[in-house]
C-alpha cells in the first residue's frame, strides 16, 4: 500500500522541502527578487507553513520583501492564535495595509485576537473603505453567521443579461470569495434570487437573469448559530450561503471553506467538553494555561468527589463490619460512570447533528432505558458468577451484581436525560461533560450499593 | 434576537410545510401531474425529508410517479442506513435504473449497505456503462480516497483553447459533480495540470489551456485515508481534489460536499470512541443493537474493574484496620480518571487535526507532565486542607492529598502517552477511549493510595 504512494503526495512533500530550502537561501542572501520569485510560486498554505518556521530576523525580511496583499494571503493561512504576535511586530502602517487586503471576515477574526487599543489604532490608519467594512463586521457576535460571513460577493440585477452578468463577473472575479453563485438583488438591495455560475455557463448570452435565477433561496439570518449553519451546508450541499437581515437585505455570504473550519472547531469543542476541558487546548499553550483550562472542572469534580466520600462516610459502620465491601466500590462506580458516558455521548452527538429532530427525544429516553436494562443485566449476571466463584460467597455476588445492574440502568438514563434537559432549556448539551456525568453516577451507584448492603447486612 | 429571524429562515420552514401539505394532497388524490409539478419544485433535500415521512403506500406511488433520475436525486439525500429498505421495496428493474442515475460514488455507498446477492443482481440488470463504473469503485477500500471519489469530472487537453474548453464544459455541466475545476490530461490520461473556472472566465477566448493551467497540482493517492484528505481540504481551501493512481493517471475527484460528510462522520466516530462505544450509535437503532455496540467495552471494563477490586483485596488487612480509608477510594480513582481523560482528549484531538506535526510530540509529553504537576499540586493541597478540617486528622489529609497529587501526575502522563504510543504503531489513537484510560488510572491510583497507606500505616 505504502509503495503505491510514490506519486504526487510524496512529490509534494519533497517539492515543499526543496522550495522551502530555496526560499531560505534567498533570505540568507538577502536577495529580494529571487525570494519573491520562489516564495510566491508556493501555495499560500505552504507559504504560511514556511513563514511560521522562520526566526524573527527572517520574518522582518519577509515583511520588507512582500506587498501587503501578498502577506495577507500568508496571514489568512496561519492559525488565528499565532497571528497576533506577527501583526504586533510589523510596522503598524504596514500591518494596517495588510489588514485592509485580507478578506474582511478573516481580518475581523484576527483583530478579535488583539487588544482593543491596537484594534482602534489599526482601524484609524487603515484604508477607509476596508476600515468601514471591518468595523461593520466587528459588531457581530462570535459564532454567529455575521462573524463568519464575508462581504466580498458578486451581486447582479434581475434585468441584466447573461452576457452582462458574465462581464461583470470577470471584473469582480479577482476579489470575490466565490464566483460560483451570483446573488440577484432588487433596487432596495433585497435578495430576490440566486444564479449559479453553472446556470450562467449553460445559458445563452442574451437570456435575462430574471428568467434563469432561482427564487427558491435558502438564506440565513445574521444572528444564526454557526453550528446550525454548518449543518445546513452538510444537508443541502451548498458551496455558499447568503446572510440577510430581518428585512432580507443581503449582508454577506458564508463560503464552504469557512464551514470546514467551523466544523473542525465545533467538533474539537464538543470533544474537549466531553472530556471536561472548558476550552480547547492548543499545542502551543504552555503548562500553566493548559492547567488553567482544566482546573475549573477538576476542582468542581474534587468537591463532588468529597460529597461522594462523605456519603460513603455515612456507611462507615457497615464498612467497619464488612470491610470486603470496599473492594468493589471502584468497580461499581466505574461501571456506572462508563455506561453513563456512553449514553451521554450518543445523546449529545445526536442533538448536535440534529438526528433527533425527526425521531423524537422521548423515544430515545425509552430506548436508552431498555438499553440500560440489557447492558446492566448482562454485566450484573457476569459479575455475580465471577464473584461467586472467586470469593465463594453467593450473597456477595448477588449484592454486587444487582448493584451494578441498577447502577447501569440509572446511569444510562441519567446520561441521556441530562443533555436532553439541557437542550430543552437552550443550554448547549455538550457542556455536560463525561467527568461530570461520571461523578454524578458515582454518587448514585454508591447510594445503591451501600443502601442494598446496609439493608441486607444480616446476610453478609 | 429571536424576533429578527422572521425572514427567510422561518419562511423556509413555512414554505416546506406548505409545499409538503400540497404534495401530500396530490398523492392522496393520486394526481401524478400535479404531484410532479409541486414535488419537483422542492430542493432535493426537502424532497428526501418529505419522502422519508411517507407510508409505504405513498412511497409506492412516488416510485410510480417519478423518473429514475428524479428519484436518484431524492435517494442521495437520504441517510445511507435508511436507503436499503427503500431500494429493496422498489421493482428491481426500476431500482437498477435509479442506481445507474445516481452519482457513482453515492451509488456505491448505497450498494455497500445491501447484501452481496442483491448487489450482483442490480449490477446485472443495470445499464452497462453505469454498472462498470460502479464495479470499478466497489473495489476500493472503505474510508479511502477511492471510496469517496466520483468519476464525474470534466477533463480537457493542454492544447485546447479557453473557448473550446468552455464549449466542452457547457456539454458536461449537467452531469459533472463540479465544473469549478477542469483537469488537464496528457494523451496517456495522466494528470498534468488544473484550471479553475475562475481562471477560464477571466482569460480571453483564444488563450491556450497550457498557458493558464497550474502545474502545481495537489492530488491524493487512491488509497489515502479520508480523514487526512479532509484535513487537506481544510488547510488548502479546496473545492475539489483529484485522485490518482501510482502512475498519476486521473481516477476521479473528491468534492467538498462529500468532505463535509466525512468530517461529520469522523468527528462522531472520535466522539463515540472517547466515550467507549465501538461504532457510532444511530437514533434508529433499537435497544438491542445499541446494547450490542456498548457491551464489548463494558465487559472489558468489567474485567479490568475486577482486577482493580482484586488489587484492593490485597490490602484487605490495611482496610480492616483503618476502614476510613475506603471512603476516599472513589475520590482518588475519580480524580485520576478525570485528569487522564482530559489529557487523552487533548492528545487525540491534536493528533487528529495534525496540530502536533510541527510542534513535536515529545514537547507535548513534557508539557503534560508539567500540567499534571500543577493541577495535581492544586487539587492535592485543596483536599488536604478540606480533610484536615473535616476529619481533624492531619496525616489522613496529607495521605489523601499526596495520593491525589501523585495519581493526577501519573494519570495525566498516561493520558497523553497512550495515544502517542498508539499513533506511533499506526493504531488510530481515538480507539483509546476515556473509560479505558479511566480504568487504567483507577488501578494506578489504587496502587498509589494503598501503597502509601500501608507503608505509613503506623501514623494512621
Automatic annotation (TrEMBL), chains A, B:
GO terms for cellular component: plasma membrane. Pfam families: CBS, MgtE, MgtE_N. SMART domains: CBS, MgtE_N. Its main location: membrane. The chain crosses the membrane at residues 295-315, 321-348, 369-390, 396-418, 439-459. It comes from the Bacteria. Keywords: CBS domain, Cell membrane, Magnesium, Membrane, Metal-binding, Transmembrane, Transmembrane helix, Transport. CDD domains: CBS_pair_Mg_transporter. It is a multi-pass membrane protein. Residues 149-212, 213-269 form the CBS domain. The keyword Transport applies. Acts as a magnesium transporter. Belongs to the SLC41A transporter family. This is Magnesium transporter MgtE. It comes from Oceanobacillus piezotolerans. The lineage of its organism: Bacteria, Bacillati, Bacillota, Bacilli, Bacillales.
